[in-house]
C-alpha cells in the first residue's frame, strides 16, 4: 500500500485492515522463520522495560494520532492495559479534526508527548523533535536498528528521528516468504457475476465486457466506481501506470515526477472509454470519503476499486447489515493482464516521533523501541498469544482466533499496532484467512518491483521543490477528472497532453533535474547495503 497525501491516508483506513513487512525492533536477520519466531521476544528493544509499575507510578502522556480516520480515541481495553502495566504509561489520545491540526500544534510549540504521523519532512526537524540517537546516548540504551532501516529513514540532515511503519528490507521479506504487500484491488458482487455466467476475467477487455453486461442487464446498478482515497489504483496497476499521486517514478532509469509517467496515457484511455459507455457516474468524481462502500451496501453497485482486502471488508459489513449478497476480489487478472506492473516506492507511511515538548522522553523512548520489536508489534496488532492467536505449525504465520478484518475494539487490538508495523506482521494474519485478501496480495506481489530509493526523494516541507510537487498534485487531481470525462477518445488524448504541458510549465522538468541528482547518489548507496541481513 503507499502513502498518498491525505487522501490515501483516509482510505488505508476503512478500506483496509492492513498487512505487509519490515525488520526493525531487533534489527537482525533470520536463520529460518521458526527459529526467528522463537527468538524474537528476547531482543533488546523488548527487554529494556520490565514493567510492574504500581498505580501511583503510572503517568498519563499525550498521544496525537495524525489521522482523521483513526478508530481508537480511548486508551483502554485488555491490550492497552498490558502496555500500561509494562511501561507505567497511559495515553490521552487526540485525533485531528482536520489535516492542518498538526501544523497548528507545531506553531504552538506543544505537540504533547508522542506524535504518530506520516508527515516525515515536517517532523524531522531537531527544533521540533528529538533525534533517536541523541536520546539513546542520553539514556544509555542501544537502538539496534537494521542498517537498511536506518538508511531509508535517515532525514536529509543526516539524523534519525523515527522508523516509518510499513517497510521492511528485502532480506527480511525474503526470509518471511509468506509476507506480501498491501495494495489495491477490485471487489465485485458474486450474485450478479454468477447470474451472468461467471465469465472468465483474464484481462481488462474481459472486465470491460463484464461491466457492459452489467449495464445492459441491470439498469439500476452502477457497474463500476472507485474509492476516493485509493483513486483507482488497481486499474492503474493493470495498465502499468504509477499509483502515486506525488513523488517520483523511474522512467528509463531516470526519476521523474509521478505525473509524467507515460503509462498514465493508457489508464486514462480505458477510464474514458468506461465513462463514455456509462459504467460510472459523475458523482464518483465528487466523492470525498467512502461513498463507493455506501453504494455497495445499498445494493446499487456491482464493482468498486479500492484495496485488496475490500471484499473481505465488504462481506463483514454486508453480513452485519443482513444483506443477502456477498463480494469477491478479482485475482486472476492481476497476473494475466499484459503489461500489469507496479513499482513499490514505499519506505513507510507513518512514524512515531518524540517531540521536544515530551514530558518523559526516557519512558517514551523505551515504549517506542518496544513497539518496533517483534513482541511489541505482535501484541498490539495480533493480541495475546494463546488467547487471540497461535503460531502455525512451521511458525511462519499466526492463526487468528478472531476475524482480523473486524477486531475487538473493546479489547484494543490491531489498530494501536498500526502506529508501527514492519510490513510483515500486519499482513501475516491474512495467510490463514480463506478470504480473497491474501490471495489478491500474493498475486500483486508477483508483479511488483521494489524501489525504496524513489520514496527517499523527500522534499523539504517548505522548499521550492515541494511547492512544485504540491502544484503538480493539484493539477493531477483536477485534470484527471477532466481527462476521464472527455466526450471522445481524441479529446481525452488532447486533454492529457495539455496536462503534461502544464506540468512542464509548472516546473516538472526542474523537479526531474533536482530528483536525479539525489537519485543517482542514493541508489548507489542503497545498492551497496540492500542485501544486508542486519
From TrEMBL:
Residues 30-52 are annotated as: Disordered. Gene3D superfamilies: Periplasmic binding protein-like II (3.40.190.10). Keywords: Signal. Residues 1-22 form the signal peptide. PROSITE patterns: PROKAR_LIPOPROTEIN. The keyword DNA-binding does not apply. SUPFAM superfamilies: Periplasmic binding protein-like II. The keyword Signal applies. This is Extracellular solute-binding protein.
Amino acid at each position: 500500500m503507499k502513502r498518498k497525501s491525505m487522501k490515501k491516508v483516509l482510505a488505508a483506513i476503512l478500506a483496509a485492515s492492513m498487512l505487509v513487512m519490515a525488520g526493525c525492533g531487533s534489527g537482525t536477520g533470520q536463520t529460518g522463520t521458526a527459529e526467528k519466531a522463537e527468538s524474537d521476544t528476547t531482543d533488546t528493544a523488548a527487554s529494556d522495560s520490565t514493567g510492574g509499575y504500581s498505580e501511583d507510578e503510572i503517568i498519563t502522556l499525550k498521544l496525537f494520532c495524525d489521522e482523521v480516520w483513526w478508530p481508537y480515541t480511548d486508551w483502554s481495553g485488555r491490550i492497552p492495559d498490558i502496555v500500561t502495566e509494562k511501561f507505567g504509561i497511559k495515553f490521552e489520545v487526540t485525533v485531528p479534526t482536520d489535516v492542518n491540526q498538526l501544523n497548528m500544534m507545531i506553531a504552538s510549540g506543544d505537540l504533547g508527548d508522542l506524535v504518530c504521523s506520516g508527515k516525515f519532512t515536517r517532523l524531522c526537524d531537531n527544533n521540533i523533535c528529538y533525534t533517536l540517537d541523541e536520546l539513546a546516548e542520553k539514556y544509555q540504551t542501544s537502538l539496534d536498528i537494521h542498517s537498511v532501516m536506518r538508511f531509508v529513514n535517515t532525514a536529509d540532515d543526516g539524523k534519525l528521528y523515527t522508523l516509518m511503519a510499513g517497510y521492511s528490507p528485502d532480506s527480511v521479506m525474503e526470509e518471511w516468504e509468506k509476507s506480501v504487500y498491501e495494495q489495491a484491488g477490485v471487489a465485485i458482487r458474486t450474485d450478479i457475476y454468477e447470474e451472468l455466467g461467471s465469465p472468465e476475467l483474464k484481462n481488462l477487455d474481459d472486465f470491460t465486457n463484464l461491466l457492459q453486461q452489467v449495464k445492459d442487464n441491470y439498469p439500476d446498478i452502477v457497474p463500476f466506481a472507485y474509492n476516493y482515497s485509493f483513486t483507482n489504483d488497481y486499474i492503474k496497476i493493470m495498465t502499468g501506470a504509477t499509483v502515486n499521486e506525488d513523488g517520483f517514478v523511474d522512467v528509463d532509469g531516470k526519476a521523474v515526477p509521478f505525473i509524467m509517467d507515460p503509462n498514465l496515457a493508457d489508464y486514462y484511455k480505458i477510464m474514458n472509454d468506461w465513462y463514455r459507455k456509462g459504467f460510472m457516474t459523475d458523482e464518483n468524481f465528487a466523492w470525498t470519503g467512502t461513498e463507493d462502500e455506501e453504494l455497495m451496501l445499498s445494493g446499487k453497485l456491482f464493482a468498486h476499486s479500492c484495496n485488496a482486502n475490500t471484499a473481505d471488508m465488504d462481506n463483514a459489513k454486508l453480513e452485519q447489515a443482513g444483506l443477502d449478497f456477498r463480494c469477491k476480489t478479482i485475482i486472476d487478472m492481476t497476473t494475466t493482464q499484459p503489461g500489469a506492473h507496479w513499482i513499490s516506492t514505499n519506505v513507510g507511511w507513518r512514524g512515531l516521533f518524540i517531540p521536544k515538548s515530551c514530558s518523559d522522553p526516557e519512558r517514551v523512548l523505551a515504549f517506542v523501541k518496544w513497539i518496533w520489536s517483534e513482541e511489541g508489534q505482535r501484541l498490539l496488532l495480533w493480541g495475546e498469544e494463546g488467547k487471540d492467536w497461535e503460531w502455525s505449525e512451521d511458525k511462519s504465520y499466526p492463526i487468528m482466533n478472531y476475524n482480523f478484518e473486524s477486531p475487538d475494539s473493546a479489547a484494543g487490538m490491531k489498530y494501536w499496532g498500526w502506529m508501527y508495523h514492519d510490513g510483515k506482521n500486519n499482513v501475516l494474519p491474512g495467510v490463514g484467512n480463506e478470504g480473497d485478501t491474501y490471495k489478491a496480495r500474493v498475486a500483486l506481489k508477483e508483479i511488483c518491483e521494489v524501489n525504496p530509493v524513489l520514496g527517499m526523494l523527500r522534499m523539504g516541507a517548505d522548499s521550492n521543490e515541494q511547492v512544485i510537487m504540491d502544484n503538480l498534485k493539484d493539477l493531477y487531481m483536477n485534470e484527471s477528472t477532466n481527462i476521464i470525462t472527455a466526450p471522445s477518445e481524441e479529446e481525452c488524448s488532447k486533454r492529457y497532453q495539455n496536462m503534461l504541458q502544464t506540468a512542464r510549465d509548472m516546473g516538472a522538468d526542474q523537479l526531474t533535474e533536482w530528483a536525479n541528482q539525489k537519485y543517482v547518489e542514493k541508489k548507489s548507496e542503497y545498492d551497496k547495503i540492500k542485501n544486508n541481513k542486519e
